[in-house]
TrEMBL record:
The keyword Repeat applies. Residues 498-521 have a biased composition (Basic and acidic residues). The lineage of its organism: Eukaryota, Metazoa, Chordata, Craniata, Vertebrata. Belongs to the WD repeat GAD-1 family. PANTHER family: GASTRULATION DEFECTIVE PROTEIN 1-RELATED (PTHR16017), WD REPEAT-CONTAINING PROTEIN 70 (PTHR16017:SF0). SUPFAM superfamilies: WD40 repeat-like. The keyword Glycosyltransferase does not apply. Residues 103-118 have a biased composition (Acidic residues). Gene3D superfamilies: YVTN repeat-like/Quinoprotein amine dehydrogenase. This is WD repeat-containing protein 70. GO terms for cellular component: nucleus; site of double-strand break. Signal peptide: none annotated.
Length: 602
């Protein structure tokens, strides 16, 4: 046995034994017993707690409490002056703190949590997980337009170009399929598709708006007014630079323009000779003011314009004389209100000011804004603001100076007007922004010539999703003919030239021909001719000059040449002798030198 073997080993090693034998434990049995005990105690504790809640006393409470493990529970001490706090669980409340205050704070916390949850839900609606960049040019993208179906995008900029982008026809190279300059050397101010998507309104820095079809061909050019007429209502069109344009949301042939001539005019697509109606914004003193932006209401019954004196004026479309709604101090006077737009439900008007603010208005109470957001830098007279498709958010872009930060898209909750999200667009200003309701994609035009499209593969539809999945087209190789066809113009005998039977005669003829024989041209004698100048120029002056400069060599002895003037110098000293007359002897003789010394000297 094991014990005997241990004893034998101990006897052999010279000691009595290995000591007491260690105890052995069955761990599985211990764990099982502990688990059962815990289950029984928890069941007893739950039973006692339920009886206490029901108000039923039990004799087994003391027995059950004796089985509980842990320190005794301290009694509940109510706060002073509180009668309704007996049901509260926890330590005593501090003096002056009531249960109602706690409940109010809990309600406030719940409201804040609810608003936070609402903001989180709103943020999830913003399609910004993916983006593509369209390279329009190098200058500011000042106009964006997307057709109602979302198939085509048009961009215009300070470089006078209008580019057409087809999402379904583009591949991953993201190239525009057409580029043109519809208004020559005028900056593009606004581009917009009509409600049917078949024509585009182009507003540039000139006085005449244009309407193009989907392929860029001109359909209409508005007439220019007479700038010498004082009353702008009596002239047929605008007489100064345009600022903005907008299509009617219900009538596909009608559109709206505003200009620096102080008028807002409506036009009919079928009548290019004259405007349809004229609206003249006026200041409080009745003077003319310049409208910088204009728009229709969602139902098309109202026409709104933001003016340079800080006012927003709204007319009934059918009554052009007096304004229906008028806000005198909407923005700071002297700043350009860059955009005004109506919400989709038609009850709220949003305005983006040149005073770095974004405001929302209820036109039924037009004296005071509903909400104001400030600190939104705006350097451009066409910075946009736009409502989200569900009318819950309002988005606008911010401007930055060159190399001084990133332009941003800022999203505000429409009801609370809290900033819920922002997107850093590029190292340039975010000028134009467009949130298409059908595609659920956001288009942004920047001041460095980029047009960015933000989308979400799950929430967005079509648009940019169509072109990013297409691989770039390979360049077409030059087509080569499988068989070379040689076409000779004089193949027929009747058109052939007569062949020379003898080559000697032909060689003699070629020898006499100075061109074929490459005969060098003889030198020109006499006056020049044929564009060539004679050797001496062919004139008397050239002949004299040549003879004068013909021979400049002088083989005479230089010493003798100098001594040739010695007699004249001694008789009439003028240059050197007077300078040495005081300190030298009267007799001056030049030194006699040998021939060898003379050559060494010279």
């Amino acid at each position: 046995s094991k014990g005997a073997s241990d004893g034998d080993i101990a006897a052999i090693m010279g000691f009595s034994g290995f000591g007491k034998k260690a105890r052995t434990f069955d761990l599985d049995a211990i764990f099982e017993q502990t688990r059962r005990t815990a289950i029984e105690r928890s069941q007893k504790a739950l039973g006692v707690f339920s009886l206490r809640q029901q108000g039923i006393s039990s004799d087994s409470d003391s027995d059950s409490d004796s089985d509980l493990v842990g320190p005794p529970v301290p009694p509940q001490l109510p706060a002073e002056g509180d009668e309704d706090d007996d049901d509260l669980v926890g330590p005593p409340l501090p003096p002056g703190y009531s249960g109602r205050m706690a409940e109010e704070e809990e309600e406030d916390d719940e409201e804040e949590d609810g608003m936070q949850d609402e903001d989180d839900d709103v943020m999830r609606k913003i399609p910004d997980t993916h983006e593509i960049t369209l390279q329009h040019g190098t200058k500011t993208v000042s106009a964006l337009g997307l057709d109602p179906s979302g198939a085509r995008l048009v961009t215009g900029g300070y470089d006078y170009d209008v580019k057409f982008w087809d999402f379904a026809g583009m591949d991953a190279s993201l190239q525009a399929f057409r580029s043109l300059q519809p208004c020559e050397c005028h900056q593009i101010k606004s581009l917009q598709y009509s409600i049917t998507g078949d024509v585009i309104l182009v507003v540039a820095g000139n006085a005449q708006a244009k309407v193009l079809d989907r392929d860029g061909f001109q359909v209409l050019e508005c007439v220019k007014g007479d700038q010498y007429i004082v009353d702008m209502a009596n002239t047929k069109g605008h007489t100064a630079m345009l600022n903005c344009g907008y299509w009617h949301p219900k009538i596909k042939e009608e559109f709206l323009t505003c200009s620096n001539d102080g008028t807002v005019r409506t036009w009919d697509l079928n009548s290019e000779k004259k405007h349809k109606a004229v609206f003249k914004p006026r200041s409080q003193q009745g003077k003319r003011v310049t409208p910088t932006c204009c728009t229709y209401s969602r139902d098309g019954k109202l026409i709104a314009a933001g003016c340079q004196d800080g006012t927003i004026q709204i007319w009934d479309r059918n009554l052009s004389v007096h304004t229906k709604f008028h806000c005198r101090q909407a923005h700071v006077p002297g700043t350009d209100t860059s955009c005004i737009t109506f919400s989709y439900d038609g009850t709220t008007l949003a305005s983006r000011g040149g005073d770095d603010t974004l405001k929302t208005w209820d036109i039924r109470n037009f004296k005071k804004p509903l909400n104001v957001a400030s600190g939104l830098t705006n350097f451009f007279p066409m910075t946009d603001c736009s409502f989200s498709p569900d009318d819950q958010l309002l988005v606008t872009g911010t401007s930055v100076k060159k190399d001084e930060g990133n332009g941003k898209l800022v999203f505000f909750n429409r009801t609370s007007f809290q900033k819920v999200y922002e997107i850093e667009v590029a190292n340039a200003s975010a000028v134009r922004c467009l949130w298409h309701p059908k595609l659920n994609q956001i288009m942004v035009g920047t001041s460095n010539g980029l047009a960015k499209v933000y989308y979400d593969p799950v929430k967005s539809q079509r648009g940019a999703k169509l072109c990013v999945v297409k691989s770039k087209r390979k360049e077409k190789q030059a087509e080569t003919l499988t068989q070379d066809y040689i076409i000779t113009p004089h193949a027929l005998p009747m058109f052939r030239e007569a062949r020379q039977r003898s080559t000697r005669k032909q060689l003699e003829k070629d020898r006499l021909d100075p061109v074929k024989s490459h005969k060098p041209e003889p030198p020109v004698s006499g006056p020049g001719r044929g564009g060539r100048v004679a050797a001496h120029g062919g004139t008397l002056s050239s002949f004299i000059v040549k003879n004068i400069a013909l021979d400049k060599t002088d083989d005479s002895n230089p010493r003798e040449a100098i001594l040739r003037h010695a007699k004249e110098a001694s008789e009439d000293p003028y240059w050197i002798a007077p300078a040495y007359a005081k300190y030298q002897t009267p007799e001056r003789l030049p030194q006699q030198r040998s021939t060898e010394d003379r050559y060494q000297l010279w």
